[in-house]
Amino acid sequence: MRRVFGPIVTVILGVAVIALVGLGFRSQTYVSPAGTQVAKQIGTATVGGKTVPHVALNLAVYPDASGSVNGQPVHPGGNPSWPTYAMTNQLQVPANSLVTMTIVQYDSGGSLNNPFFANVRGTVGGTATIDGKAVKTWNPNDIGHTFSLRPYPGVSPGFFVNVPLPLAGNADGSNNCDTAGCPHHTITFSFVSGSKGLYAWNCEFPCGLSVAGFGAVMSANGYMSGDLHVV
Amino acid sequence: MSSEHSEEHEVAKVTDDGLLSEEINKAAFVPIFLMWAVMTVLGVLAGIFLVPHLMPKPYSPEGHDAQLTVQVFTIAAAPVAAFVFALSIYVLFGRRHRGDTPPEDGPPIRNNNRNVIGWLAASTLLVGFLLIWGITEWSVEQSVPPNQLQVNVTGQQWLWTFGYPASGVTSNELVLPVNRPVQFNITSVDVTHGFWPVSMGIQVDANPGQITVIRTTPNKLGKFVVRCSQLCGLNHAYMYAQAKVVSPADYAAWIQQQKSMSSAQALAGGRSNS
After folding, report:
1. What are the pLDDT tens digits along chain A (231 aa)?
2. Measured between CA atoms, how close is B60 to chain A, in angstroms?
3. pTM score, whole prediction
């Protein structure tokens, strides 16, 4: 009896340990305290001869993650020396729809590690509108941040969106406001969402510390990167 | 400490000259051989039929060679692994001691020249075969064919970009003409990444401040992905790019399209920053 009982208990304990490790990893999955921004439908559009939903998303980039705007923290519990996308990094849009995104950029900046990311890619018409002017690229030495989006492996291969966000000349990092008086740029662009699945976006400007500016804030969930849930 | 235990101990006795007794040799040979034969056949069949399904579809001679190498090595390893497994299973279950008191250790086996020479010879042959196979494959990859397409690969957290210096094009997508040799010049602008177009059977690190070179020749039309094989930070899991192998005409059209896009961007860039 003991010969049978021993192996069975060993196997059960092994499975339990593996399950605990898996649950431990799962519990570490980042969940934005600000929740998910579900895109609002603003109409319909014709894409490839088909009528699809036209939805809108709004983001902002602030220099101080510990600050607030209109009484709302831009990043609950945020680090004061880090920039952040706000008000959440979790976005949701319907599949195969036209998505128009508006990003208001308040942060300072500098030069990209790779000038390729100064180019607009994957948007409707290959352009983005910066302060009302359509552009296809920007000076790679005057970049604040970028919005770079691609799918998780296995979903819509080839899908890629990149938009440079010009620096706003706010070098002291104290300007968390969204009034007209604050130095900022308003960037608008549209893209057609891919098939259902998880997509990842992040900033490709080296706005963190340590190795090549991709440490600290760039290596922390919830600040300069996030998920696009296409449903 | 019954007579059963004494008998078992007797069977396991080793002769004075270090050889296992005839008795245990005969008792062990048949079950070990049968298990070895069955597991060897299973291993060889897995090498022939299972490996191609476990590996990505090859898009280059190197990809094909990588698959063939795994197949050959699996087949070569099958009899060795089967021998270890068969012996282990036999010892664990066939020669298991019953009772609470372990038997005394037998005398150590020494000076069995036949076994030592046989084991050394078999190991040398196997390792030599693997070494020669590996060096041959590696030397084939080192040859520099004429008319190579140069592609500059840049890894950065957490995207790949591909530059085509001959045409001045840069893209986030790797597009290659079929049957034309390509040389990848690989670097990184931040941390170490791993350039890994899985289906092409090649992989090399992208190191900051250095250029590493690897060559291949795509020989099949289709699409696959380029992954990062070095854990490189927060979004490492997302760091991949799409690769396409297209006809020479489609490649020329794609280059032209990318050039037009670059020209338009250069013009637009001039206006936006004025």
Report:
1. 667 788 899 999 999 999 999 998 877 777 788 889 999 999 999 988 889 999 999 999 988 888 888 888 888 888 888 899 988 999 999 999 999 999 999 888 889 999 999 999 999 999 999 999 999 999 999 999 999 998 887 787 778 999 999 998 654 445 555 555 678 899 999 999 989 999 999 999 988 877 788 888 888 888 999 999 999
2. 21
3. 0.79
Point out the residue among A135, A157, A221 whose CB comes nearest to the CB of B225: A157
CA dihedral A117, A118, A123, A128 (to 10 degrees): 150
The whole-angstrom separation of Cα A28 and Cα A69 is 28
CA distance B215 to chain A (A): 24
Q: Are strands A98-105 and A50-62 parallel, antiparallel or unpaired?
A: parallel
**Looking at the partner chain, which of B154, B265, B269 has a beta carbon nearest the beta carbon of A114?**
B154
- In words, the CATH class of domain B149-262 is mainly beta
Complex prediction ipTM: 0.82
Query: CA-nearest residue of chain B to A152?
Result: B238
Structure tokens at B8: 């078992």
Pairwise CA distance, residues A209 & A211, whole Å: 7
